[in-house]
Amino acid sequence: MNIKPEEAAAALAEIERARTTMRQVIRAHRGHYHLWIWGAAWIAMPLSAHLLSDQAVRWFGLICIPFGIASMLVGTTQSRQVRSPINRRFLFALAALVCFAVVFPVVLQARPEPKSIYAYTCLVVMQCYVVAGIWTDTYLLWLGLLISALIIAGLFFLPGVFWLWMAVFGGGSLILSGFYVRHFWR
C-alpha cells in the first residue's frame, strides 16, 4: 500500500492537532497538579529519611496516603471535565510492569538496604512514566529517563547525601515539570 505525500502530511497534521488538544486539556484540567502532589511526596519521603535516619523508610507508605487522596480527588475532578475513554491496554501494560516489579525482588531473594529499596521503587515508577511517554506524550518519556538517571547517580555516586539528592532532584524534578506543563506546555 502506497501512501501519497498529501495523505501522509494530512495524517501527520491530524496527529499534531490531537496532541495539541490533549496537552491543552491536561493543562486546563489540572493534570499538572498530579506532578506537584507526587513531587511533594517525593520531597517528604526522602527528607524524612534524611532527618530521622533510614528507619523512616518504614513510614513512607503512611506518608503517601494524604498525597494519594489528594491525587484521587484531582483525578475525580478531571474525570468529570475530561470525557475520554480509559485505554485498557495502557492500564494493563502498567499493571503488568508493576506486577513484575513486585516479583523481581522476591525471586532475587535480596535484602537490600533502605536506600536501594527506595531507589528501586522510584525506578519502577519512572519506568511507568517512560511507558506512559511512549504511549501518550514524549515529555513523560524524557522526564522518566531524566529522573531515572538522577536516581542512579545519587544511589551510586552520592550515597552520603542520597536522601537529600532524592528530595531535591527527584521531587524537585516532578514539581518543576508540573510548572512546565502548567505554564509552558503548548
Primary descriptors:
mainly alpha; about 190 residues
Model description:
With 186 residues, the protein is mostly helical. Helices cover 82% and strands 0% of the residues. The longest helix has 24 residues. The relative contact order is 0.15.
Summary?
Helices cover 82% and strands 0% of the residues.
Computed structural class = mainly alpha
Q: Secondary-structure element order, as H and E?
A: HHHHHHH
Total strands: the figure is 0
Counted by DSSP, the helix tally is 7
Radius of gyration over all CA atoms, rounded: 19 Å
State which percent range the strand residues make up. under 5%
Helix content: over 70%
Overall body shape = globular
State the major sheet. none
Topology:
Blueprint lengths: L4 H24 L2 H22 L7 H22 L6 H21 L5 H22 L2 H20 L4 H22 L3
